[in-house]
């Protein structure tokens, strides 16, 4: 324990501490897993900033607080994920979560570990903010180094929390983009299967009609339907291409660490709009195929049957829409 402490050096000035933290942020920015990032951040506070007692707790969407990583009373970095409490039961934590860039400090207060009082001394907490979202908070105390914590540590704590919040927000954006990419890929694959099925249906119908002497004009009919269906299919492909282009732009910005909240929001809106255009176009193509199939069924019937005249006329007009426009 003493050997571990001797290896740690407390920065003499806040300028030196900020320089050390900047170097640690560059290292932490390479992590792609939030749990590993938080654990590494605790070690960074110990080894680069000389803050031996650090704890990081996270806040979920249901306003429950869950422990992540921290330092016990022996100075060991430990997993504290067993800690799980509703925020409503932790009134002392509301102050650092009330607003951004706020550090709550207390002197001569009870110091805790695993909900046990392990001593008294100085304690400070700061929220981990990214934009308008708070991911949790960072807490430090002087249990293991009473009276040795520099007076500017509370100011440094706000900067540390700001940096960690930024990294957690970036990881969340990256995860959301990955999920969106997987969703779009699945939708494109599904739409491709549907298009292939529709094309197969058209080919099968074309072969059946060519075998019937009563459908000598099937070539023109199929050409008209193909012309009609090419428009929604072309619109679908154009929208999908635009979606892919925008997604690549977002991924490129993320890779360069230049993705802003505004750019992400605009990009998601653009993807949603084009997704709606794809769905509408495919529904139009599906209706054309259904109308075409129904008209074909009417023309191949060899027995008397009851038909709806208006439906038949509408289907014929739709199938010959291209010729009628001329």
Describe the structure.
With 326 residues, the chain is of the alpha+beta class. Helices cover 59% and strands 17% of the residues.
Task: Please provide the count of β strands.
Answer: 7
Element string (H = helix, E = strand): HHHEEEEHEEEHHHHH
**How much helix is in the residues?**
55-70%
Give the count of helical stretches.
9
List the helices and strands and how they pair.
Layout: H1 2-6, H2 14-28, H3 34-49, E1 53-59, E2 64-71, E3 77-79, E4 84-86, H4 94-97, E5 103-113, E6 116-130, E7 133-141, H5 153-210, H6 218-255, H7 261-300, H8 309-319, H9 321-325
Antiparallel strand pairs: 1-2, 1-7, 2-3, 2-4, 5-6, 6-7
Helix pairs in contact: 2-3, 2-5, 5-6, 5-7, 6-7, 7-8
Provide a concise account of the structure shown:
With 326 residues, the chain is of the alpha+beta class.
Features:
326 residues, alpha+beta, seven-stranded antiparallel sheet, 17% strand, elongated, disordered N terminus
């Amino acid at each position: 324990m003493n050997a571990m402490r001797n290896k740690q050096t407390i920065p003499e000035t806040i300028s030196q501490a900020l320089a050390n933290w900047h170097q640690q942020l560059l290292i932490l920015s390479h992590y792609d897993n939030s749990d590993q990032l938080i654990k590494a951040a605790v070690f960074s506070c110990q080894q680069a900033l000389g803050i031996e007692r650090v704890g990081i707790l996270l806040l979920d969407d249901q306003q429950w607080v869950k422990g992540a990583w921290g330092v016990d009373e022996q100075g060991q970095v430990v997993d504290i994920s067993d800690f799980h409490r509703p925020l409503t039961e932790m009134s002392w934590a509301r102050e650092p979560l009330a607003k951004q860039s706020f550090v709550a400090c207390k002197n001569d207060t009870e110091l805790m570990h695993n909900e046990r009082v392990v001593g008294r001394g100085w304690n400070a907490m700061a929220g981990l903010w990214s934009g308008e979202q708070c991911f949790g908070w960072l807490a430090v105390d002087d249990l293991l180094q009473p009276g040795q914590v520099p007076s500017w540590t509370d100011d440094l704590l706000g900067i540390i929390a700001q940096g960690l919040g930024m990294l957690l927000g970036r990881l969340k954006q990256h995860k959301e983009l990955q999920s969106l990419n997987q969703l779009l890929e699945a939708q494109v694959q599904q739409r491709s299967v549907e298009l292939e099925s529709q094309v197969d249906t058209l080919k099968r119908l074309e072969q059946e009609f060519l075998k019937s002497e009563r459908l000598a004009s099937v070539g023109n009919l199929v050409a008209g339907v193909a012309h009609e269906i090419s428009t929604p299919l072309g619109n679908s492909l154009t929208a999908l291409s635009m979606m892919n282009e925008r997604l690549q732009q977002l991924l490129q910005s993320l890779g360069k660490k230049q993705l802003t909240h505004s750019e992400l929001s605009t990009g998601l809106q653009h993807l949603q709009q084009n997704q709606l255009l794809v769905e509408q176009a495919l529904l139009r193509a599906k209706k054309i195929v259904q109308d075409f199939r129904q008209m074909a069924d009417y023309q191949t019937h060899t027995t008397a049957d009851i038909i709806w005249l208006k439906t038949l006329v509408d289907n014929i007009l739709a199938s010959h829409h291209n010729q009628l426009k001329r």
